Q: What sequence folds into this?
């Protein structure tokens, strides 16, 4: 296999020149309540970046009027492209499809709900001009989130970073600017099931944080139930790291040590102590339940990898496009090729 080598002639040692095209990629699932406001606020900010811009909205199988609103936006604004998915393929697929369609020298990925304030984009552009290849939004505050989500997200980000074989920034979502070379490297990856927060750091390049306060959703509701978040978190870990597989070694070692201790206790209590039968029974029960649990969990972990391997081998595309509106309509593929 050959490696990916981007067009490095355009990667700067220091500053990038002014001008160029900035693409904004926005995944949208049931965002009719907010999308017009998002577009208005975004275009007002983009006028201040000193770059031409295009906005790529990806309608990820919305069941509300999101698509109708996006059609209206595309009809009014020639810098808008709308990619309509054939069904709901998920945010990761929507972001990837937008990235593949974007033509900018720099590409910003942002949510549709104004939780990532568009006003941060000019700062990202400045960081990029100053030499960063990835300018990622790093969250200082997260207003409007439950304490439960804040704690679990923070713990999860740290767990993910500690298990990842390459450095990944913490307290960071999908809101970031990618240089064309980084976007090309990520688009070129052949894997179907994609977790961009893992893929972008994997590619390397120069990453720089742009600090911001994450706002509450402007309107509508989160599309992530706790169950869907758990699925995303599992995907993220398994797609980015084989550490969970190795955990089975740790579990096996733990089982062996516990078994040894329990057996010792069981043996000793047959010689001493008044209630030796109970103690021996307790020790044996502990061993039996461990013997049953550890291999079951190990098989489940292996199963998660096998399931994902099977999906990759099947080779189905990550998304299917029903229709594309706007100025990139003709030149784009209808699905992500293998
Ligand atoms: N989204 C998507 N497909 C989905 C779920 C979400 O394209 O299946 C989009 C959604 O419209 C939003 C972004 O992904 O632009 C983040 O979703 P959301 O705001 O619901 O997540 P949260 O901010 O609550 O984690
Ligand atoms: Mg949101």
A:
């Amino acid at each position: 296999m050959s490696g990916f080598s981007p067009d490095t002639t355009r990667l700067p040692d220091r500053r990038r020149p002014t001008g160029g095209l900035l693409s904004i990629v926005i995944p949208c699932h049931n965002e009719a309540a907010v999308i017009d406001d998002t577009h208005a606020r975004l275009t007002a900010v983009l006028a201040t970046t000193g770059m031409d811009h295009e906005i790529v909205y990806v309608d990820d199988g919305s069941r509300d009027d999101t698509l109708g609103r996006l059609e209206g936006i595309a009809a009014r604004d020639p810098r808008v492209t709308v990619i309509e998915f054939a069904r709901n393929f998920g945010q990761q697929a929507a972001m990837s499809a937008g990235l593949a369609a974007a033509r900018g020298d720099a590409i910003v990925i942002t949510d549709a709900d104004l939780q990532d304030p568009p006003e941060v984009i000019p700062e990202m552009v400045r960081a990029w001009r100053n030499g960063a290849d990835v300018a990622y939004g790093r969250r200082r505050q997260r207003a409007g989130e439950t304490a439960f989500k804040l704690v679990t997200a923070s713990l999860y980000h740290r767990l993910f970073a500690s298990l990842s074989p390459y450095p990944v920034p913490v307290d960071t979502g999908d809101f970031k600017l990618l240089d064309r070379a980084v976007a090309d490297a990520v688009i070129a990856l052949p894997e179907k099931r994609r977790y961009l927060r893992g893929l972008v750091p994997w590619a390397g390049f120069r990453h720089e944080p742009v600090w911001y306060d994450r706002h509450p959703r402007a309107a509508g509701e989160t599309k992530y139930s706790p169950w869907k978040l758990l699925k995303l978190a599992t995907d993220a870990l398994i797609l980015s790291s084989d550490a969970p597989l190795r955990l089975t070694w740790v579990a096996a070692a733990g089982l062996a040590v516990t078994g040894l201790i329990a057996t010792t206790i069981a043996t000793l209590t047959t010689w001493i102590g008044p209630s030796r039968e109970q103690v021996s029974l307790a020790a044996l029960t502990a061993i039996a339940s461990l013997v049953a649990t550890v291999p079951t969990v190990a098989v489940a972990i292996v199963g998660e990898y096998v399931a994902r391997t099977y999906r990759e081998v099947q080779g189905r595309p990550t998304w299917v496009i029903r229709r594309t509106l706007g100025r990139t309509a003709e030149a784009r593929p209808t699905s992500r090729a293998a």
Q: What stands out?
A: Confidence is low (pLDDT under 50) at residues 331-335. The chain has two domains: 21-223+316-336, 243-314.
